Amino acid sequence: MTVKLDEKLEPIFQDVLHRNPGESEFHQAVHEVLETLGPVLVKYPEFADKKIIQRICEPERQIIFRVPWQDDSGEIHINRAFRVEFNSALGPYKGGMRFHPSVYLGIIKFLGFEQIFKNALTGLPIGGGKGGSDFDPKGKSDDEIMRFCQSMMTELYRHLGEYTDVPAGDIGVGGREIGYLFGQYKRITNRYESGVFTGKGLDWGGSRARTEATGYGTVFFTHEMLKARGDSLEGKTVVVSGSGNVAIYAIEKAHELGAKVIACSDSQGMIVHERGIDLQTLKRIKEVERRRISAYTEYHKDAKYVEDGNIWSVPCDVALPCATQNELNGKDAKMLVENGCVAVAEGANMPTTPEGIIVFQDAKIAYGPGKAANAGGVATSALEMQQNASRDSWTFDYTQKRLEEIMIDIHKNCYETAAEFGAEGNYVLGANINGFLRVAKAMNAMGVI
Ligand code: NAP
C-alpha cells in the first residue's frame, strides 16, 4: 500500500491482513479508510478504547452457499454465492448483489465494507452489506437466469427481511434478475414484503428514478464539486467508462446539465463519438438487445470503436469511471491530468487504484470517491423502502428532487468534514471520516455487540 498508516492503525491493518488472507480488494478498501482515520482517534480516543475500528473491519455475519442449477440442455452447474452482512449499527444491512465470474469473498467484503460508510453518508437508516455470485449471466437465456435466481433465493431467503437485510442490484443484476429473485422470495415466504428488495419494477413496488439514481447522483455530485470551485458542468467534455446501468444514466444526466459525453466502453472495447454519445442508440444496444458496445458503429458511422482501447487516453475535462474496481491506475490518472482533466467522480466502487488517487490528490483536481459520488443509488433504494413502508408511490420529479438534495448534502458534509480536519477539498478524507463517525457513534451507544 502506498500511504503509511498512523502507528495506532497499522497493527489493526496487519490484523486484517492476517485474518483475511488473499482478499486483496478487501485489504485495499480497508487501507484506504484507515489512511484517513488517524486524526479521528486523536479527537475521539474512546473509539480506540472500545475497539470500534477492529469491530467495523470484521463483518457481523458472512454467508457462503452452493447454488446448483440446470442449463437449457439439462446440464447441471454449481456456483458459489455470498452474502456478507457487514454492519447493522444504523439500520438493516443494505447493499447490492453482483453476478460476475470474478466474484469471490474478497470482492464482496470490499464492497460490503465500502457500503457501510456510503450508506452512513446518505443520512438514511441503512446498515451495510453486499452479496453476489461467481455466476456469469453473459450468454445465458432468460430461463437459465430465472433458474439460477430461483435456486439462489431458495437459500438466501432465510437471511433476508425488510428489517434484517435488503439486497438490490449491482454488476450483472438489473430489473430482470431482481424480478426473479423477489418472485421466489415471495413464493417461499408467502409474504408480499416489498421492502425486502430494492430496484423492483415500477408496477410491483419499485421507485421511480431508482434505475437512474446512481448515474444521476454521480453527476449531481460532480456538479457540486465543480460549483465549489466556481465552475460548472456546462460545456465540459466528459468520458464515462462502462455502458451498464450506472454509465448510461450518468451520460443522460451529464447531457441534461449541458456537458458532452464523447466516449464510453464495455469490457471489450470503447466507443469514441466526438459529436456526443447518442443515448437512444446506447440504451437500445445495452438495455434491449443486450449486445456488445461495438454494435454502436452500425448506427453511427462517424463513431470509432477501439477494441481493448484505454478510455482514459481520450482527452476530457471530466472523467466518470462507472465500470468496475481498479479500472483506473496511476498511469491512467497521469494521462488524464496531463490532458487537462479537472474532475473525476466515481460511479463505480473503488475504480481508482491507490496510485491513481495519489496522482489526483497531488494534482489538486476535484476527486470524488465512490463512497460519496455513487451513494445516490443506495439513497434512492432507501427512498424505495420508505415508499414501500407507507404503501406510497412518489412521482419521478419528487424522487429525483430528493436524490439531488441528498447528493448536495453528501457533498456538503464531505466538504465540511474535510475542512474541519484541516484537509479542505479532500473528499476521500471527508467521506471516510463523516461516514465513520456516524457508524462509530451508533456502535458506541449500543455497547459491545
Ligand atoms: P452493469 O449494469 O452490469 O454494468 C457494468 C459495466 O461495466 C458494463 O459495461 C461492463 O461491461 C463493465 N465491466 C464490468 N466488469 C468489467 C471489467 N472487469 N472490466 C471492464 N469493464 C467491466 O453494472 P452497474 O450496476 O452499472 O455497476 C457498475 C459499477 O457501479 C460497479 O462498480 C458497481 O459496484 C457500481 N455501483 C452500482 C450501483 C447500482 O445502483 N447499480 C450503485 C453503486 C455503485 P461488460 O458488459 O462487457 O461486462
TrEMBL record:
Coiled-coil zones: none
Q: Does the keyword Oxidoreductase apply?
A: yes
A GO molecular function annotation here is:
glutamate dehydrogenase (NADP+) activity
Q: Boundaries of each Glutamate/phenylalanine/leucine/valine/L-tryptophan dehydrogenase C-terminal domain copy? A: 207-447
| One Pfam family linked to the record | ELFV_dehydrog_N
Keyword annotations: Oxidoreductase
Q: What's this protein's family per the entry?
A: Belongs to the Glu/Leu/Phe/Val dehydrogenases family.
Q: What does this protein do?
A: Catalyzes the reversible oxidative deamination of glutamate to alpha-ketoglutarate and ammonia.
Q: How does it assemble?
A: Homohexamer.
This chain's protein is named: Glutamate dehydrogenase
